[in-house]
Amino acid sequence: MQRRSFVKGLAAATAAVQMWPEMAQGVNNRLSTLRTDLDALLGEADLWRRVRIEFQLNPGLVHFNTGSVGAAPRVVTDTVSQYLSQLEGNPNHNVWGPIGNLAEEVRTRAAEFLGADVSEVAITRNTTEGMNQIATGIDLDAGDEVLTTSHEHGGGVCCWEHLQKHRGVQVNYMKMPNPVQNKEQFLQLLEQHLTPRTRVVSLMHVDTITGMVYPLADVAKITRPRGILLVCDGAHAPGMLHMNLKLLGVDAFASSSHKWMLAPKGSGLLYIRREVQDRIHPISLYSGFSAYSASMGTRNVAHIIGHGVAMDFHNTLGRANVEARCRQLSNRLRSHLLQFPRLRLLTPMQVELSSGIVTFAVDGMPRAEIASQLFAKHSMIVKNAQGTYAFATNPVDKAKKQDYNCLRFSTHIYNSEAEVDRLASHIEDILA
Ligand SMILES: Cc1ncc(COP(=O)(O)O)c(C=O)c1O
């Protein structure tokens, strides 16, 4: 009896292993059906309507806050749940065996997605984790300086403030103009803040408050010849911008795939340029960049496979097309809102400095009131942005905090022109 049930258990586990190719095939079939459908559609509006079917947002809910967290398409979440349960048929074998290998292969796709080499890319859970790994992986001494901006998110700046508190590293903040007029203005500001003790410049790729795209390639031309490490909090970029890290020239980059890449929640990427891997050496990468390693430990491999499918989903649509769509909707919203005298644009107007995020400061009405009316009356989610996030631990830093009383709008591929137009009209009514 015992022997029989053991054999039965083995058979079940073997069947589960045989499921993997079928499940992978299922994902491929769903994505190729989507591709075929899109190829058959001529009008752009039809095309994006077809894409929208892939999502699972509640009926009537309008999601304009991908900058906080995106909505994963069905093919991603189905993949995670299928692999999650199939894996348990023989966990020991699968986590490090066939499924572990599939998870490891996601790094190759991630490297391609970011424009990096696979030996430079690790899978994390989010930007915050990646930034913590970068910051604590650099040998900074008391008195060494990190230069960053007054707009950082806690997830990109707590790591530096931790080093300030515990190792005597000095964190300097550039007070950001609002909006930045052009890239020359920003580069000049940066140069003015560099000192002989600056070891690290830490900038976002896309500003969490204003949506400004930082001119990283130009910054790298300033930092690299001086031996300063250029670290980037790239929370919003992958999945919104069709980006290439080699062209940006950053030394290290951390991002959250659960925002614009539409991956399962708790998915992130970390990049460390090969040439600086001797200067940035996080403990977690001590035994290599692999998804599983002695220094990284056991992973949720089903989840990582879903992360890879999110990249496949973007590649199916075309990353340049996704960026163009995010920008197109953002520009449309910006044009509407520019008409309202009580709103002041905080996002730069130039294409090279703008993105799929647009932000307006509100005059004479608390931002929270507008955001809560939009949700209560119209089921529209926008970011009730709180101004600067810099994690202020002392009164001097607290005084540097700014509150722009602003609303941040993120437009992604599941949004539509009609939603954007309705949003603008509701805001007009609320302001009136
Ligand atoms: C610029 C920036 N960095 C870091 C984070 C934190 O992201 P996560 O919670 O995914 O680590 C955010 C979140 O909104 C962000 O906007």
Describe it for me?
The structure is a single chain. Strand 5, helix 9 and strand 6 (229-233) form a beta-alpha-beta unit. The chain has two domains: 106-313, Aspartate Aminotransferase, domain 2, CATH 3.40.640.10; 320-431, Aspartate Aminotransferase, domain 1, CATH 3.90.1150.10. Helix content is 47%, strand content 12%. 46% of the residues are buried. The protein has helices at residues 2-40, 44-52, 74-87, 91-96, 98-114, 127-136, 154-167, 183-193, 216-223, 245-248, 301-317, 319-337, 367-378, 395-400, 417-431; strands at residues 62-63, 121-124, 145-149, 170-174, 198-204, 229-233, 252-256, 268-272, 343-345, 357-362, 380-381, 406-410. The model is unreliable at 1-18 (pLDDT under 50). Helix 1 (2-40) packs parallel to helix 11, helix 6 (127-136) runs parallel beside helix 7 and helix 13 packs across helix 15 (417-431). A seven-stranded mixed beta sheet has the order 2-8-7-6-5-3-4, with helices on both faces. By secondary structure, it is α/β, with parallel strands linked by helices. It has 15 helices and twelve strands. It is globular and about 60 Å long. The chain binds pyridoxal-5'-phosphate. Pyridoxal-5'-phosphate binds at residues 68, 126-128, 153, 155-156, 204, 208, 233, 235, 256. Residues 68, 126-128, 153, 155-156, 204, 208, 233, 235, 256 line the site of pyridoxal-5'-phosphate.
